Amino acid sequence: MEQKPTQQSLGRYILPNVLAMIGMSCYILADTFFISMAAGTNGIAALNLALPVYGIIFAVGSMIGVGSAIRYSLIKPVDRPQADLYFSSAILWELICSLPFVALGIFAPGAVLRLLGADEVLFGVGLPYLRVVLCCTPMFMLNYTFTAFVRNDGAPNIAMAATLTSGLFNIAFDYLLMFPLKMGMVGAALATGLSPVVSMSVCMVHYLSKKNTVVFLRRAPSPRRLAAACSLGIAAFVGEISSGITTMVFNFLLLDLASNVGVAAYAVAANMALVGMALFNGVSQGLQPLASAVHGAGDRQAEERIRRQSILISLVIAVVLVGGVLLFADQLVAIFNSEHSAELAAYAGSGMRLYFWGFLLAAVNVVKAGFLSATGRGTEASVIALSRGVVAIVVFAFLLSRLLGLAGVWLAFPAAEGFTLLLSFWLERRGAK
């Protein structure tokens, strides 16, 4: 494969995914902004308590949906009938896996909120929001399968349009439901919960077109296919759940060190951080169809070129993000500080300037994990993803918070990403030997 076509193809897949993630980031920030205007610091803190629930839902949905789409791409050239089974298998398993979340939303949302650390104030603000989010789990999960298979079926622009359209819907309905209709936090949750329906509707443009090659087959859900998909979707799983785990751990530490205002400050930083992680995930997901294709064709030179170029793109994004936060952290915090809290401004401004250094390292780690998963090396991808998203971040958060107090909480993210980067180099050297 010549370099020029590879570069063009890589751009064709990465750019739509990055643009789609920018759109997703905009609606995440808009959600936070509208909640800050409607419910102030307590509303932001309640939203942050709910973020780990989003993390678990999105993680399960992405593991099944993205993993099934990768497996579909790898098998399709050699065994088309078996590849076709992965689409329907993903849909059925996501419906099954969403049922416990729906049950919690109907019968025990309060117990979930208490488990996440809510006091009486945050319980009252967050309960109606969390109930709606849990009940909308099937739509969140199914959206991953719909968009991943559209992207892997040669229509990345439609997948991008689906994400952007759902983001615009979320922003518009956030405002409509929260302010003119005065539905408050329930309105914010409904806007977010219904946006995947818009995304899946746009994806149907491809599924109903003549270019579509993905078919839904009526088969009983297969545990074997679920395991095969999840083995390649674990990087996507950890990529999504890592923010939820980090948020939950940080929430408990910050409640102890700086009360509800500390949690609200982290909520501002975490929502800004979601922008960066969304962009890196856009690069990681964008490289996947092409990396899987050249790996299946045995073109190792093109495979290595895709890896290097994807890491470079991700690093450029990271430099822009870190530079922007270092220069404009105070102005960014002020957007979400509707009550003009000096305490919130101080915590969030200084914290973001420490926290965001980790993105220079995360840029490499996220792309490496996505690339390894796309080329069938699920074990190595899982080790990197689990280190940065679960193990290292939790260990450093507890360790550094004890040594450095509040500053240590913010520095846990850069420390975890640095440790993971060193681990990834060791894994590469071991693989080369």
Describe the overall structure.
Residues 1-5 have low confidence and may be disordered. This protein has 433 residues and is an all-alpha fold. Helix content is 88%, strand content 0%. It has helices at residues 3-75, 80-107, 109-115, 120-135, 137-152, 156-178, 184-207, 223-296, 300-336, 342-355, 359-374, 378-404, 406-432. The longest helix is centred in the middle third of the chain and has 74 residues, at 223-296. The two termini are 26 Å apart. The chain is globular.
Biggest β-sheet strands, sense, barrel: none
Number of domains: 1
Q: What is the string of helix and strand elements?
A: HHHHHHHHHHHHH
Give start-end ranges of low-pLDDT stretches. Answer: 1-5
Q: How many strand units?
A: 0
Strand percentage, roughly?
A: under 5%
How many whole angstroms does the radius of gyration measure? 21 Å
Mean pLDDT: 87
Counted by DSSP, the helix tally is 13
* Helical coverage, percent range: over 70%
Coarse shape = globular
Explain the layout of strands and helices.
Blueprint: H1 3-75, H2 80-107, H3 109-115, H4 120-135, H5 137-152, H6 156-178, H7 184-207, H8 223-296, H9 300-336, H10 342-355, H11 359-374, H12 378-404, H13 406-432
Helix pairs in contact: 1-2, 1-4, 1-5, 1-6, 1-7, 1-8, 1-9, 2-4, 2-5, 3-4, 4-7, 5-6, 5-7, 6-7, 8-9, 8-10, 8-11, 8-12, 9-10, 9-11, 10-13, 11-12, 11-13, 12-13
